[in-house]
Amino acid sequence: MSGWITKLKENIPEKQILTDTADRFSYSFDASFGEYLPEAVVQVKNKEETVHVLKTANQYMVPVTPRGQSTSLSGGPLPVKGGIVLDMSQWPETIDVFADDLIAIVSPSVLTADINKTVEPHGLMYPPDPSSAHVCTIGGNLAENSGGPRGLKYGVTKDYVIGLEVVTPEGEIMKTGGRTIKNVTGFDLTKLIIGSEGTLGVITEATVKLVPKPPAVQTLMAVFDDVELAGEATSKTLTSGILPSKMEFVDQECIKAVENYNPIGLPVEAAAILIIELDGHPEAIQMETEQVQKIMEELEASATQIPETEEEAAKIWQARKLVSPAIATIKPTKVSEDATVPRSKIGPMMGRLQAIKEKYNVDIVVFGHAGDGNLHPDVMCDKRDTEEMERVENAVAEIFEAAIDLGGTLSGEHGIGTMKSAFMEQELGPVGVDMMKRIKAAWDPSNILNPGKIFPEKGQTKLVLRDE
Ligand SMILES: Cc1cc2nc3c(=O)[nH]c(=O)nc-3n(C[C@H](O)[C@H](O)[C@H](O)COP(=O)(O)OP(=O)(O)OC[C@H]3O[C@@H](n4cnc5c(N)ncnc54)[C@H](O)[C@@H]3O)c2cc1C
Fold this sequence. Notes:
alpha+beta; Uridine Diphospho-n-acetylenolpyruvylglucosamine Reductase, domain 2; Alpha-Beta Plaits; 15 helices; 20% strand
């Protein structure tokens, strides 16, 4: 047995340290690509155990990869250098609400959707709402700076975190920020940790900001025969003085997939639909709904639908939620991308995606958060077909290029992980990437925490989607 496993057992119950092949195997995947077997899995349940893992790992030079529920779409929790997977999902869930301060203090294993369930009875809301909210952890959300449909009006995870407790890569406990909305004491280390994909620290507690729950919401669905008009309708709404809370785009392939998967009466002949939600005072949203409906009709929406009951609205949003599982039935492999463009460039990005689809003869379906320019062009393929995968790799590289050309970014919410690291310099330039590497080296001198992520490996120039 490795000396470091014996050392781990000194302060962590043996049943929390998994070394059997079968146990380790279930920790070798996430929701993206690749399969990497860790040497051990440690299911930590408190910060003292986390400290012990990191101190031991530094002593024996063993890589440590934090893991929440492993729903990452970019390879973040994959133990690409072996070593230890630090499973945070067995940590006891705690959500302490301080309604007078409009904050909640949460443990890292809390499922994101549970925060809202807990704060709603207080008339409060935690706005970030990734579509995976019922299965992913707040720890994972913080590490990826996750977003969701409500990002349009309310922003993303980083906008709702004011304090963190973190175990550093060398195994020290650190607090950042605090309980106050205003705090400018020193560097903003809270923001540095958020989105660092588990490479700068293990998050063991977070103080999140809450907002009053809007008194009313109204959903509206608009049907388009032309994808670019749907893009224009989005831009026109956003410049009309109205800020919807959600504005989601679903293309024809996705509509058909949802109807095949779980028929709910979506218009399968439509080129695209927009699903919009307005929230606020009931009288205000009634006026805004009429205005948005008018904009949709001016942009030649072939139909608009305003649900009259909560059940009808829930059915429309259920359709949006079903897109991911439904398109997974088109082909066995799904390459989920989240390249994001400025809102005014949604129409041109749609055009570029169509051209890429034709050039490489690949199956691209598009859905996503149109209101904030964060589209999800997903390439449906079969990873066993090497010739097809080569075309897919080239198509995805061109999707990244298109997004950057249009003033956008490689990733709006899924993170870089292993999937997009080869393209970092294209967006940030060599100085930007070098500065990030220097920060990582200062925080984690032995490169213990989640190595092999964000930065390209030596000589890595392209996306690799095949398990090589
Ligand atoms: C169907 C589906 C829909 C999705 N929809 C969205 C969406 O709408 N918006 C969105 O942003 N994402 C979405 N995702 C991606 C994914 O759910 C998010 O990235 C989520 O934040 C990952 O959480 P997790 O608990 O699964 O973390 P994991 O996947 O286990 O880990 C993600 C990253 O966080 C790190 N990490 C985990 N816990 C900690 C911790 N406590 N401290 C430090 N680092 C840690 C890991 O090392 C890894 O780098 C979706 C995924 C799926 C499969």
